[in-house]
Structures are given as C-alpha cells and as structure tokens.
Amino acid sequence: MRLACLAALLEAGACGSSTAPSSSIPPTIPAPLHGEVTDPSGDAAVDARVPVSPDLVHATADVSAGTVTFVIQFVPGTFNPQTTRVSVVLDTDRDGTTGIRQGNGLGADYGLDFVAGSSLAAVTRADPAGCAAGQSCFNAVGSVPITMIANGMQGSVRLSMLGNGDGRFNFQMRHTCS
Ligand SMILES: [Ca+2]
Ligand SMILES: [Ca+2]
C-alpha cells in the first residue's frame, strides 16, 4: 500500500484499560476493551494536491460484543469527506514476528483502509509470503461501511473478519491522501 502523504503516525494497544470483571459478569464474557491515541494538531504535512491537509488528532478503538469500532478525528476543518484516507494496520496476535513487519517492530496481520470518498473501509489480511516474493503484502478480505461524524469518520469490523482474535491488538494509523 503506497502512503501518499504521511501526516501522522499513531499507535496504541487496545487493551489494559478495562477493570477486572465484577462477580456478576460471567468470566467467559470478555470485558469491553478500549484503546485511545492522540496526535498533535498543526503537524500535518503539506500536500499540493489538496488545499488543506487532514490533521489527525485523535483515534479510539473499542471492542465490544465481537466487534471493534474505530473512531478517527481530525482538527476541525481539515477532514475532507471526498479525499481523506486513513490506513490502519493491526497486529492482532501482538507478535512482531508474524505478519508484515512495520518500522517500529509491530507485525501487522491485518489492515484497514478508510476511504472517506467511497464510504467504505477495505479490510485486508497480511500475506508475508506474497510480500516477500514482491507481490501484494495485504490482500482484501472484505469491506465495511464508514460513518461520517463531526470532523472525522468511524467504522466497525467484526473480529471474525480479523482472524477471530480476542480483541486485544496493537495498531498504527496513518493519514494518507487518495
Ligand atoms: Ca496531527
Ligand atoms: Ca503479528
């Protein structure tokens, strides 16, 4: 996946913030998980193709009932519902040696490509063997709808589309331009 204009790099683990389940919750039902990352405002790289570069400032990932929901927000006035794209890579097994190695050691097993103009986010699965052979590193496994929100967008993906993990994963997010 070519990253046209790198404006922000966020990373976080969607785990750790939940408290121990109370005795009224059966232990077989995982507590909801929440991950949150922030990025400085005013650091968006200038891109000549768009009048205003989207400036990513905040993203959350919430896992509940077998679904992970990403909410991505920009500095007011910088999100463009026609051209803004956000690429997310997910290390769903939290193992840097599996998937596609990222610069910081994260081993991306799945990807999400939020394309605001299409109102869809493509879901992709890493193909380390194909990638090593010079072919595609991520292959499409489906897509999910994007919902526009104030100054951003959100989308939800069933964990069954992401290898049926337990909902604990590390992720990185990059703003790109379409
Ligand atoms: Ca930013
Ligand atoms: Ca991995």
In short:
This protein has 178 residues and is an all-beta fold. The chain is 3% helix and 45% strand.
Notes on the protein architecture:
This protein is 3% helix and 45% strand. It has 178 residues and is mainly β. It has one domain: Immunoglobulin-like. The strands form 2 sheets. The protein has a 10-stranded antiparallel beta sheet with strand order 1-12-5-8-9-10-11-4-3-2, with no helix packed on it. The longest helix has 5 residues. Bound molecules: calcium ion (2 copies). One calcium ion binds next to loops.
Can you lay out the helices and strands and say which pair or pack?
Blueprint: E1 9-13, E2 33-38, E3 56-64, E4 67-74, E5 84-91, E6 100-101, E7 107-108, E8 110-115, E9 120-126, H1 128-132, E10 138-149, E11 152-158, E12 170-177
Could you name the key traits of this structure?
178 residues; 12 strands; Immunoglobulin-like; mainly beta; binds calcium ion; two-stranded antiparallel ribbon; 1 helix; ten-stranded antiparallel sheet; disordered N terminus
Element pattern in H and E = EEEEEEEEEHEEE
Overall structural class, as computed from helix and strand content, comes to mainly beta
Architecture per CATH nomenclature, i.e. the level-2 architecture: Sandwich
Bound molecules: calcium ion
- The tally of beta strands, per DSSP, is 12
- Helix fraction, binned, reads under 10%
Strand content range: 35-45%
Count of discrete structural domains: 1
Terminal Cα separation, in Å?
12 Å
Name of the CATH class: Mainly Beta
Main sheet specs? 10 strands, antiparallel
Name the overall outline. globular
Radius of gyration from the alpha-carbon trace, in angstroms = 16 Å
Strand order of the biggest β-sheet: 1-12-5-8-9-10-11-4-3-2
List low-confidence stretches: 1-27
Contiguous helical run count: 1
Q: Could you report the average pLDDT, rounded to the nearest whole number?
A: 84
- The CATH topology is given as Immunoglobulin-like
